[in-house]
Amino acid sequence: MLSEKAIEAVEETAAELNRRRSHNPATAEGSTEPAKRREANPDQLWAKKNLRFRDGRPLLDIANMMRIFERHEEYKGRFRYNETLNKVLDKGSLMLDWRIMEVCADVQERFLPEVPETVVRNALIVMGNRNGISK
Which of 19, 26, 27, 68 is in the most buried spot, having the most CB atoms within 10 Å? Predict the structure, then answer.
């Protein structure tokens, strides 16, 4: 179970990622300016080309998560499974809960807004094994 401090860190990271993606300066959070029409962002275009959809909505399953981890340049080949530790590694670093939550928040923010964290965890394990086992 995550501590309050860890949850706050994840929430702050998610807010920062959201701010960066929307290209808003940190001081614009309380702005009353009307929202400008958004152009399709590169992540949405990538998702339309690479993910599976049903009725216009992306499927929130392990298969779509694996497509992200296999095909997207930021995720491709990053994850390995460590048999000794029984954990997934991200570029050689042990994926503690906060790292998993950070990946989950990034995927939710960019590609699959409603994907459950358990689906992300399971896809990480599968991809870690697919990419190779480290000892």
Answer: 68
Among the listed residues 24, 22, 55, the one whose alpha carbon sits nearest the alpha carbon of residue 39: 22
Q: Dmax over Cα atoms in the chain, in whole Å?
A: 53
- Distance, in Å, from the CA atom of 103 to the CA atom of 100, rounded to the nearest integer, reads 5
| 21, two tokens | 């993606």
Q: What is the dihedral of CA 94, 98, 101, 105, to 10 degrees?
A: -110
* Residue 93 identity: S
Q: How many CB atoms lie within 10 A of CB 91?
A: 9
Give the tens place of pLDDT for each residue, 56-101: 999 999 999 999 999 999 999 999 999 999 999 999 999 999 999 9
Tokens standing for residue 47: 């998702």
